[in-house]
Write a structure and sequence with these properties.
single chain, 196 residues, alpha/beta, five-stranded parallel β-sheet, globular
Length: 196
């Protein structure tokens, strides 16, 4: 069920890209993180590590999009910014968008920032399962401004080649989790189509 989502986009090389846009993937506001509070959930952490690696390799700025989704939470982008700084990315290479609470808002607020900064080529980085829905919104909102969006899926949950593994015959909680995430994405894609 998740394979068609994860295989829809391949990782595009950041040629001609002006900024890496990384989407938040959840945060826990009260989680201890050394002397700080607030941590990223696994999807958000995987996305951020991939973005940090690419930013360092290609000397690109990183635009982190993610607000405070729950009232008892914290802005995902602010937590991610702190972690990028701790990983050695300079402040001038980090752009923070803290209002978005949905993928649609990620795209809308990012489009406004790209317009302000004159970006015409962006690399969208999010989990492979989340990429098709994200591209629906980003191609719509950024495309209206003539901004090209290239996909860079990461945080794969399935083997991209789809080769059979005998352990798949044993029920696993992870498989149920991936199925739930895939269903969430399919419903979200239908909703995105209807919102246009």
């Amino acid at each position: 069920m998740g394979q068609p989502l994860e295989n829809r986009y391949s990782q595009q090389q950041p040629a001609n890209v002006q900024v890496i846009v990384v989407l938040g993937g959840g945060s826990v506001g009260s989680a201890p993180d050394g002397t700080e509070r607030g941590g990223l959930m696994s999807a958000g952490a995987a996305r951020l590590l991939t973005a940090a690696r690419l930013a360092k390799q290609h000397s690109l700025p990183v635009l982190i999009s993610g607000g405070q989704v729950f009232s008892d939470g914290v802005s995902e982008a602010l937590v991610a910014e702190r972690i990028l700084l701790q990983l050695g990315l300079p402040q001038e290479q980090i752009i923070v968008e803290t209002q978005a609470r949905t993928t649609k808002e990620n795209a809308a607020y990012t489009a406004a920032l790209c317009h302000e900064r004159g970006y015409k080529n962006v690399l969208l980085l999010t989990s492979a399962l989340h990429m098709p829905r994200s591209m629906q919104f980003f191609e719509h909102y950024l495309g209206e401004q003539g901004v090209k969006v290239a996909a860079y899926p990461c945080d794969y949950t399935l083997n991209p080649q789809g080769k059979f593994n005998p352990r798949w015959l044993v029920p696993q909680l992870q498989a149920f989790d991936v199925t739930c995430m895939a269903l969430h994405e399919y419903v979200g894609m239908a909703g995105a189509f209807l919102q246009r």
